[in-house]
Amino acid sequence: MAIDPARTASMHVDQCPFVDLPNSKSDRWGGGVTADEMREMQWVRPELVAQIRFVEWTAEGRLRHAAFLGLCSDKGAREVWREAHEVTS
Q: Which of 28, 38, 52, 77 is deepest in the core (most CB within 10 A)?
């Protein structure tokens, strides 16, 4: 499932909107986005909300085995945050 480029065209920005990139520090699986890789990327303002299926959060704060399921229309980007994990016994 792809995102329609016409929908994101008006959201285009020249610089990365995320404060934690570039991140040249690789994790054990080769993660991280370097400044060179960022030059090849197209950036948009973070306005859309996606539904993502994933297995778990890594120790580095990344999603493990993530899969894009689709865009959500019931929430705005400012209404979404990472929920705290609650351990129940």
A: 38
Pairing of strands 43-44, 12-13: antiparallel
Task: Give the pairing type, strands 49-53 and 12-13.
Answer: unpaired
Domain ranges of the chain: 5-79
Query: Which value, to the nearest 10 degrees, does the dihedral of the CA atoms of residues 76, 79, 54, 31 take?
Result: 90
Look at strands 12-13 and 67-72 and give their pairing. Answer: unpaired
CB 29 within 8 A of CB 59: no
Q: What is the pLDDT of residues 24-43, one digit of tens each?
A: 666 666 667 788 888 888 88
Give the separation between CA 75 and CA 2, rounded to whole angstroms.
Answer: 19
pTM of this prediction?
0.64
Query: What class has domain 5-79?
Result: mainly beta
